[in-house]
Specification:
Blueprint (H helix, E strand, L loop, with lengths): L11 H32 L9 H25 L3 H30 L11 H4 L1 H19 L4 H13 L3 H10 L5 H22 L4 H18 L5 H11 L6
Helix pairs in contact: 1-2, 1-6, 1-7, 2-3, 2-6, 3-5, 5-6, 5-9, 6-9, 7-8, 8-9
């Protein structure tokens, strides 16, 4: 039997011990999100003032998600499995709400005159948040599907949070005046940290980590290749309409 046949059914003791790493990663994600959008408020407050209701809801929902990445490992470490499961069930509604409000915010940004990410056209710029809204439910769905396999479940949850860091990282890096490649460097460093953790604790890279890593890496050809095609531009125009001119 292949060593990858079992995606990891950890004992409760093993899960409790390993939860510390995932909780720390949750804190890192939350800190990056707060720093990124906090930098935006300092550097370009006009972009979020006055605060649109949809943007406010977006912020609250996404902060709640990153808080869960801290709370859930702590519950496992405390062996409070019942509460962990109840919170997990509630997170299903949160995930649906995040995806829904995410697309609303994307549409609002797209229809704003002169909107652009990295100097790209509005249609191409949509690819940046669009990949987040595609890979997040995919990673989350895999986490729910593997909820009986602790090793896979917690890794997919972690990558569900990681794939959504782009907006915060872009604002943090841009606000600090750093070159855009720093965003990729930070993301790949986070991926590498999970791979190193796997090697140290499992002696191999967990299959869920490979899948999650692939989601992060696939965003780059999507943004820099697929987003530049006429087919993508036509898709965005059909979905959101014609972007207004500056």
């Amino acid at each position: 039997m292949s060593r990858y046949a079992n995606w990891g059914v950890s004992t409760m003791a093993d899960t409790a011990r390993s939860g510390r790493f995932f909780e720390i990663m949750g804190w890192i994600f939350l800190a990056l999100v707060i720093a990124g959008f906090g930098t935006l408020q300092v550097v370009s407050p006009e972009l979020t003032s006055p605060m649109r209701p949809t943007l406010l809801v977006h912020i609250v929902l996404f902060l709640a998600w990153y808080a869960l990445l801290i709370v859930q490992p702590r519950l496992i470490a405390a062996r409070d499995i019942q509460t962990h499961m109840k919170v997990g069930k509630a997170s299903i509604a949160l995930a649906f709400a995040m995806v829904g409000i995410g697309f609303v915010v994307i549409r609002e940004a797209y229809l704003k005159p002169g909107w652009s990410i990295a100097g790209m056209s509005p249609q191409a710029s949509v690819m940046f948040p669009f990949t987040d809204m595609i890979f997040f439910p995919l990673a989350y769905g895999l986490a729910i599907y593997n909820r009986g396999k602790a090793d896979a479940h917690k890794r997919f949850m972690l990558f569900a949070g990681m794939v959504m860091l782009d907006p915060a990282l872009a604002r943090l890096v841009g606000g600090l005046g750093l070159p855009p490649p720093i965003i990729m460097a930070i993301e790949l460093t986070l991926v590498a940290s999970v791979i190193i953790y796997d090697r140290r604790t499992l002696g191999r890279v967990h299959p869920a980590t490979w899948v999650g890593s692939a989601m992060i890496v696939l965003t780059y050809p999507a943004v820099f290749v697929l987003a530049q095609t006429q087919g993508w531009s036509d898709f965005v125009t059909a979905m959101f309409g014609v972007a207004p001119t500056p």
